[in-house]
TrEMBL record:
Ranges for domain HTH araC/xylS-type: 214-316
Protein name: HTH araC/xylS-type domain-containing protein
GO MF annotation terms: DNA-binding transcription factor activity; sequence-specific DNA binding
Entry-linked SUPFAM superfamilies: Homeodomain-like (SSF46689)
Keywords for this protein: DNA-binding, Transcription, Transcription regulation
Domain of life of the organism encoding this protein: Bacteria
Family annotation (PANTHER family): HTH-TYPE DNA-BINDING TRANSCRIPTIONAL ACTIVATOR EUTR (PTHR46796:SF12), HTH-TYPE TRANSCRIPTIONAL ACTIVATOR RHAS-RELATED (PTHR46796)
Length: 318
C-alpha cells in the first residue's frame, strides 16, 4: 500500500506510492479534479511532490507506468506544466508532448493527457494577472503545448530542475528560510522569459473532434457496467466506426474498446482496495458487475495491467 513520507516542514509534502491508487493520485495537482487510469501493464510506483509557494502551487511527479488523466484544472489558477524528462512522447489535449515542452492550461480548463511511463513532469499554478505584470498577455482558451529551441529548453531544464531538486532534496532548515513570495515570482519569471522567445502564443481553439471525444468518454464511463457494441458510439456521434476510433485515440492515446476495458479494471481495483473486509464480495461477482463475463479473461487482463492478481489486491485493502 502507499508509503507516505511527510516532511515536518509545511507546506512542503512528499509522497511515494508503491501501487496504483486513484484516490491519492487524484490530488497530485492540487485543486484539480481528475479521473486517472493506469494504462501500462505491470506494477506501479509514483514519487510525488507538492509545495505551496507564495500565491502559487508547485507540483511534481514521476510515474513508473503510463497514466491516462482526464478532468479539469484548478478553477483558481492558470497552470504551466513542464516535462523534465521522458522516454517517449505523451499526449496533452490532442497535442504531442515531449521532453522540455511546456503545457499551458486556463483556470478551470479541461485536460486530457496520456503520460508515458518514466515521464518526470512538474506543474506550476499562478495568477494570470501576475504574468501580465511581466509583459506576457495570454488570451483564454490557451490549452496547448509550446515547443522551444534547444537553448531555451536547456535554460528551462536547468532553472526549473534546479529549483525542484533544491526543494525535494534540500535540508528542511534551509528550505524554511526561503522567501516563498520571491520564489513564486522567480518561477513565474522563468516561464515568462521562455514565452517571450515565442512569436506566436495564440490560443488553440477547441474543434469538433475534441467535443466528440469528450462525449464518447462520458458515454463509456456512464455505461461501463453494460454490454457494449461499437454501433452505440457511431449512433451517439453520427460518425463511422473508423472515425470514432481515430477521434478518441487522437485525444486520449487509446482506442475506445481498450479504454473501456481499462476503466472497468480500475473500477474493480478501486472496489477491492476500499472494501471493508466484513462486507467484501466475491471477486467474480464484482468483475461481472463491471462488464467481465469470462473470469479467466478478467484474471489475465487484471494481472497484465496491475502486475498482481485481484486476490492480491484485495489483501492490500485499506
Amino acid at each position: 500500500m502507499p508509503n507516505t513520507l511527510d516532511l515536518d516542514l509545511s507546506p512542503i509534502q512528499k509522497q511515494t506510492l508503491t501501487c496504483f491508487d486513484s484516490d491519492l493520485l487524484r490530488d497530485v495537482i492540487k485543486g484539480a479534479d481528475f479521473d486517472l487510469h493506469q494504462v501500462g501493464k505491470g506494477s506501479f510506483q509514483a514519487d510525488m511532490f507538492h509545495a505551496t509557494i507564495g500565491k502559487g502551487i508547485l507540483d511534481s511527479s514521476r510515474y513508473s507506468n503510463a497514466i491516462l488523466t482526464e478532468g479539469t484544472i484548478s478553477p483558481n489558477n492558470m497552470t504551466f506544466g513542464f516535462i523534465h524528462d521522458s522516454k517517449e512522447a505523451s499526449i496533452f489535449n490532442r497535442n504531442t508532448l515531449q521532453k522540455h515542452n511546456i503545457m499551458m492550461g486556463d483556470e478551470g480548463g479541461t485536460l486530457a493527457s496520456s503520460i508515458t511511463a518514466g515521464t518526470h513532469w512538474s506543474s506550476f499554478q499562478f495568477k494570470r494577472e501576475d504574468l501580465l505584470k511581466l509583459g506576457i498577455t495570454l488570451e483564454k482558451d490557451n490549452n496547448k503545448v509550446l515547443h522551444f529551441n534547444k537553448k531555451t529548453q536547456k535554460e528551462l531544464s536547468y532553472k526549473l530542475g534546479g529549483i525542484l531538486h533544491y526543494l525535494e532534496k534540500g535540508n528542511n532548515e534551509k528550505i524554511a528560510q526561503i522567501n516563498t513570495e520571491l520564489l513564486y515570482h522567480h518561477i513565474l519569471a522563468i516561464y515568462a522569459n521562455a514565452l517571450d522567445q515565442i512569436n506566436d502564443v495564440s490560443h488553440l481553439k477547441r474543434d469538433e473532434s475534441f467535443l466528440l471525444s469528450k462525449k464518447i468518454l462520458t458515454y463509456l464511463k456512464e455505461n461501463a457496467d453494460q454490454p457494449f457494441q461499437m454501433i452505440e458510439l457511431t449512433a451517439l456521434t453520427g460518425k463511422s466506426e473508423r472515425t470514432v476510433e481515430r477521434i478518441f485515440k487522437k485525444h486520449f492515446g487509446i482506442a475506445p474498446y481498450a479504454y473501456l476495458k481499462i476503466h472497468r479494471l480500475h473500477l474493480i481495483r478501486n472496489h477491492l482496495l476500499h472494501t471493508d473486509e466484513s462486507i467484501a464480495e466475491n471477486i467474480g461477482d464484482i468483475a461481472m458487475k463491471n462488464g467481465f463475463i469470462q473470469m479467466g479473461y478478467f484474471g489475465s487482463e487484471y494481472k497484465k495491467i496491475f502486475g498482481e492478481t485481484a486476490s492480491e489486491t484485495l489483501r492490500k485493502r485499506k
